[in-house]
Specification:
- Chain A: Belongs to the rad9 family.
- Chain A: One of its GO terms (cellular component) is checkpoint clamp complex.
- Chain A: One of its GO terms (biological process) is cellular response to ionizing radiation.
- Chain A: Keywords: DNA damage.
- The complex is a heterodimer of chains A (445) and B (332).
- Chain A folds into 3 domains: 131 residues, Proliferating Cell Nuclear Antigen (Box), CATH 3.70.10; 148 residues, Proliferating Cell Nuclear Antigen; 90 residues, no CATH class.
- In chain A, 19% of the residues lie in helices and 26% in strands.
- Chain A contains 9 helices and 19 strands.
- In chain A, helix 1 packs antiparallel against helix 3 and helix 4 packs across helix 5.
- Chain A is elongated.
- About 32% of the residues of chain A have low confidence.
- Chain B is α+β, with helices and mostly antiparallel strands and 332 residues long.
- Chain B has 2 domains: 162 residues, Proliferating Cell Nuclear Antigen; 154 residues, Box (Proliferating Cell Nuclear Antigen), CATH 3.70.10.10.
- Chain B contains 9 helices and 18 strands.
- In chain B, the strands form 3 sheets. In chain B, strands 10-6-2-3-4-18-17-16-11 form a 9-stranded antiparallel β-sheet.
- In chain B, helix 1 runs antiparallel to helix 3.
- Chain B is globular, with a radius of gyration of 25 Å.
- Classes of the chains: A alpha+beta (445), B alpha+beta (332).
- Chains A and B meet through helix 4 and strand 14 of A and strand 6, helix 3, strand 8, helix 4 and strand 9 of B.
- Strand 14 of chain A pairs antiparallel with strand 9 of chain B, so a sheet runs across the interface.
Chain lengths: 445, 332
């Protein structure tokens, strides 16, 4: 039985809330990984172009932290048997870890979080208890889903370009950009660092007036703590991601550091403060020059068509020795097939049944990604699970599963007919599908 | 074709463009020697014809205009230009020029802004050790300069395509009056429209058309704002407003005496016949009143049951800078 429990002081609680607010800007589910000395929250965005991780150090961030794994529970397949992973709806967590309240009397004095995960129990929950003033105790129980979490690996030693700056200056820059701008190009020339916003929207030649406004802001390199960048090198990232990072960095009151090599390689923005280490690994693209055909430089497009996320794949080339080839992320793109790897009542340590499907179907599925958020919950993994087809007996739960399948189908009339062979791959859903608990958890006392 | 200038009154320019942008998405900007005109002709709603002397918003000594016809006509997305001008409000200097990128003509704003940084105290943090060491390397207080370039795509209009556009012509007004504070007028108008719409929604809601505001005035300094539905009738009256005299230089004495407004003045101030009335859409009226941000002097000319023409004079420019709003009256 995995045990995890920790307590948070009010100050840490607010920081956790800020972190969740930031993570929520990337995607709607957060992966939680517990290790002996850290707790990591990470999010990979749906297009797999941005990976965000907040690492909370056990000794400094928490008032108390304890984590233990069962001796026999881990499987040899798991690359990291020393951790526990699961994923949760960020919205659910945000509603629990609210920001600062004005109500002084019943302000939170301490927060205890405990993981109740027992293979013999049907209910596995995160139990969060807010101990507030005047003896008020609010407890929340959140369901979670098993997940196989992968990290975007970024090799800092290979960094060739690096700068560090007060995020306040970056926010002043992004304030000038049009709200509809999508991309941010970063370059330098002479003594200036230039930030240019642009949009790769293909507009009809006649609709000149609907073309986006191009904004570029040049600031002095002296505004940076240090700025070691190859001159006239252009890299571009998604502006929305950049804004999400600087908003959090500004609230954390800390310097932000960017590291990158060249276009079409990931850029990492990072900063550490008060027992929290953050990293934001963002895919970059080439320069914003208009003459480049727009469709030819869209890394995230190609990423959609291949099973592996770009950020991970790119980075792993230099790290293949100490990391297994990163498989696609749990919430990868695929048709509705049940929840095989979640078969073990909410843990990833159980074998799961899944066959690797032909790439063609993945391409096909990618068209349907936006249509169905719920499917992103379904299959944690594709590659790692190939050897486990016979890992469980589905007969007992077949009916309940089919019921849930049918209900899902009701809402997805546009779904293509299911390949019946997938039924073999079905798994037992975790204790409860998160989609079933869409109502936010209510305080129980 | 060349156009380049330094902006000298960014706040006015920005507010002007801002109030225009509430009425339409694109505006026809006409640059001439000495005069700039902005015109908005939406498919529906109020037209604006604005005319300003160059020095109202541009630095006349830097104003360069070269074109075969001596005129440059541009179609400008006002919303985007307004947004771009926001970067310039606190700037030390701003240049506006017409340029081209590929095949796209652009109005390019080059903005130099400077701010003061206090160096290591900029963040005001002393408690975080990490940050404190980081800041040790930052130099002391100094001036930071930021250069912002905003490129707004525009369309260059040929003289032929704007030839057919003319300012509306109306008959002489029945009543002309200086409006009270636009802010007050706006909030009362909005309140009335909301009340009327709410009461309508609660009732039978036979017609989907929102109730119209009734605006009327007489030549004895009174202005009335009213709205009526089946269930309510509400009105506000301003008194002691000014009915400005018309320029005697433009009209002869007999012409002046025959003006409809003089006939209206002849009615006693409690006589219903002395009032000229128009019906206008509350939402459209709200957009028109957004020009209040320029704190102008506004003369409203009422043409009974036909139209309302507003002459909006910008402060500090005499009568040279004038925005003219043409608002049609709805039938009863």
């Amino acid at each position: 039985m995995t045990t995890l429990s920790f307590s948070l002081a009010p100050e840490s609680l607010f920081q956790l809330h800020d972190a969740l607010t930031c993570l929520a800007k990337f995607h709607d589910t957060v992966a939680i990984e517990a290790e002996y000395d850290i707790l990591r929250l990470s999010v990979l965005n749906p297009t797999k172009t941005a990976y965000t991780a907040f690492v909370f150090e056990a000794d400094t961030f928490f008032e108390s932290y304890s984590f233990a794994l069962p001796r026999n529970g881990t499987s040899s397949r798991d690359a990291r048997p020393d951790r526990f992973c699961c994923q949760l709806y960020i919205k659910a967590l945000l509603s629990v870890f609210k920001g600062r309240t004005k109500d002084k009397d019943t302000a939170v004095e301490r927060c205890d979080v405990e993981l109740r995960e027992d293979l013999d129990q049907t209910e596995c929950r995160f139990v969060i208890r807010m101990i507030c003033g005047l003896g008020v105790i609010k407890s929340y129980k959140l369901t979670y889903e098993a997940a196989n979490v992968n990290h975007a690996v970024f090799d800092r030693t290979k960094t060739t370009n690096q700068w560090s700056i007060d995020p306040k200056f970056l926010r002043e820059i992004t304030d000038h950009f049009s709200p509809s701008a999508e991309q941010l190009d970063i370059s330098s020339e002479g003594g200036k660092a230039i930030f240019t916003s642009f949009t790769t929207k293909i507009t009809d030649g006649k609709e000149i007036l609907k073309k986006p406004v191009h904004t570029s802001v040049a600031i002095d390199k002296r505004d940076f703590e240090y700025f070691l960048v190859e001159d006239s090198l252009h890299v571009a990232i998604a502006l929305k991601d950049f804004k999400a990072v600087i908003a959090h960095a500004e609230s954390a009151n800390t310097m932000i550091t960017a590291r990158y090599t060249r276009p079409n390689r990931p850029m990492q923005l990072a900063y550490d403060f008060g027992g929290i280490k953050t990293e934001f690994t963002l895919m970059t693209r080439g320069a914003s020059d208009d003459e480049v055909p727009q469709s030819s430089r869209a890394p995230e497009l190609s990423a959609r068509q291949t099973p592996a996320p770009v950020t991970v794949r790119q980075a792993s080339t230099s790290n293949s020795r100490n990391m297994p080839p990163p498989p696609p992320r749990a919430r990868s793109i695929r048709p509705l097939t049940g929840t095989p790897s979640a078969s073990a009542r909410g843990t990833e340590t159980e074998p799961s049944a899944e066959t690797q499907r032909p790439p063609a179907s993945i391409d096909f599925d990618s068209l349907f990604v936006p249509a169905d958020d719920d499917r992103q919950w379904d299959v944690p993994n594709e590659d790692e699970e190939t050897e486990d087809r016979l890992g469980w007996d589905a007969t007992g739960d077949h009916e309940t599963f089919n019921a849930s399948l049918g209900r899902l189908r009701d809402t997805e009339s546009s779904m293509p007919p299911q390949d019946t062979s997938h039924e073999d791959d079905m798994g037992i859903p975790p204790t409860q599908r998160i989609s079933q608990v869409s109502q936010l958890p209510a305080p129980q006392q | 074709m060349r156009f380049r200038t330094q902006l000298c009154n960014v706040t006015t320019f920005s507010k002007l463009i801002g109030s225009l942008s509430s009425l339409g998405k694109v505006c026809w900007m006409r640059l001439e020697d000495g005069i700039i005109r902005f015109t908005i002709i939406p498919d529906q709603g109020t037209q604006v014809w604005a005319q300003l002397p160059v020095d109202a918003i541009f630095e006349e000594s830097t104003y360069i205009l070269e074109a075969n016809s001596g005129v440059i006509n541009l179609e400008v997305p006002v919303g985007a230009l307004h947004r771009a001008l926001r970067s310039a409000v606190a700037a030390t200097s701003t240049q506006l020029r017409l340029t081209k990128k590929g095949n796209v003509p652009l109005l390019a704003l080059t903005i130099h802004a400077s701010s003061w940084t206090t160096g290591s105290n900029a963040l005001g943090i002393a408690d975080a050790d990490q940050a404190a060491t980081d800041h040790a390397t930052v130099s002391g207080p100094r001036e930071r300069e930021t250069v912002i370039a905003q490129e707004v795509p525009v369309k260059v209009l040929h003289e032929l395509s704007v030839e057919g556009l003319h300012e509306p012509r109306c008959r002489d007004p029945d009543v002309h009056i200086i409006l009270p504070s636009l802010f007050q007028l706006k909030s009362i108008s909005e309140r009335f429209t909301k009340l009327a719409t709410d009461s309508k929604g609660a009732g039978t809601a036979l017609s989907s058309v929102a109730p119209k505001l009734e605006l009327s005035a007489n030549m004895h300094g009174s202005l009335k704002l009213a709205i009526a539905t089946d269930s309510l009738r509400i009105s506000s009256v301003w008194t002691d407003l000014v009915n400005p005299a018309l320029d005697p230089a433009q009209l002869s004495q007999t012409e002046l005496e025959q003006l409809p407004s003089e006939r209206m003045r002849a009615f006693r101030d409690d006589d219903e016949a002395g009032w000229a009335k128009v019906r206008i859409d509350g939402k459209d009226w709200g957009r028109v009143l957004s020009v209040g941000r320029l704190s102008p002097k506004v003369v409203a000319c009422f043409i009974h049951e036909t139209a309302l023409v507003l002459y909006v004079y910008l402060p500090g420019n005499g009568d040279d800078s004038c925005l003219t709003y043409y608002i049609n009256s709805y039938a009863a």
